[in-house]
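dumping this here before i forget
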Amino acid sequence: MKDQLIVFDTTLRDGEQSPGASMTRDEKVRIARNLERLRVDVIEAGFPMASPGDFEAVVAVAREIKDSTVCALARAIPRDIDRAAEAIKPARSGRIHTFIATSPIHMQEKLRMDPEQVLKNAVDAVKRARQFTDDVEFSPEDAGRSDIDFLCRVVEAAIAAGARTVNIPDTVGYTLPNQFGELIRTLRERVPNSDKTVFSVHCHNDLGLAVANSLSAVLNGARQVECTINGLGERAGNAALEEVVMAVRTRRDLFTCDTRIDTTQIVPASRLVSNITGFPVQPNKAIVGANAFAHESGIHQDGVIKKRETYEIMRAEDVGWVANRMVLGKHSGRNAFRTRLKELGIGFRSDDEFNSAFERFKDLADKKHEIFDEDIQALVTEEGLENIDEQFRLASLKVCSETGVKPRATVSLYVRGAQKSAVADGGGPVDASFRAIESVIASEAQLLLYSVNNITSGTDSQGEVTVRLERAGRIVNGHGADTDIVIASAKAYLNALNKLVLSGERAHPQAGAPI
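structure:
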């Protein structure tokens, strides 16, 4: 019998710390449902103390999820722990994850605490969390750069205080695989009560080693890995769930453990997260990239044709790469559309939302011959965008682009209910459209990123545009999709502007210095 490797997904918490990747409550619930279908063991739903919005999102996920444990993050501060406990109260299975930094640089420069104070706070935090739930996880932040003797003391004390899981984070992605594996082995050997807890790891990808470090830790006895879909996360991201899971599953000859993940749900989960966050998956990304199972070399093609295992170490269908398309058109009915949405794990809060999505589907069917699942995901995401309290909305857009003539855009917008128009020239049709929008709104936002992806193949594919804007230190992503790439760009730009002007701005989770 193999040990179970617990999969702890932090896409909704650490993944959201990617600049511009903030998700709405409903988007978090959609992703959480997908993670539950993936059979993730623990879903870290957020950091309730970060903002009222984060608290509400954790509560919503806790109410929705039945088959996975719902976890909330808290600093080793009483009010944080109490807030986390309140957020996970509706969960069938809830966990509180509390942390405090243990490396010299963090203790001295950030916390302004000495080691004894940190040790006391760690113990007090675990004990307080145990008043609300038996499932408590403790993390010594920046463990990879902590003094090993002090780290052993803190881990031992946290376990004695009641931590059922002890997570060892490589917070800044500093360690190398052999070092990190050795760290886990040393802790298991030196900490007297190490057999009373599950050792977990949380690795960042600053040196591109997050997955390698995580796997090295598993080989040395760690039995929980904290990861995210597509490796999403702040800075260079976290260990990618799909890579960790498939490495353990594929190399059964080396690993004495396995996960309970339904790997056929990996690609659908990847697409959903990419669609909602607007962070595209690079084509050569392992497991979920478009080229992950593609072969162009004649030698490779010949080998695969003769025997797949010559150049493929796993099957594409095992991770969810299937030709699953929705062949519906403008004559298809609501029941067929609703059935496919259910199969994709998509639900609506009201009939009005469903009807609005159905009308969008009809409009798209007039433009495209075939509707793919990716089109449906984009369509539903756009429906969710419309539920934002929109200050600005596109009424119409006309663009003139001709060889030898400077492109010109004429835009008509609804601005807080009033219709306004503007004309602007630009270096191209998209630039002219953005300039026309800015001449109406005057946001003074700086464009940090403009990214275009085709949702499906073919010249009639929808274009998916991501726009990242920054103003006064606040970064947001805007998302838009349309068969006309210029219109998709305008939608994305306006979506980002709507997020910038939202009242009650959400505090970025990083303000709480999570691991």
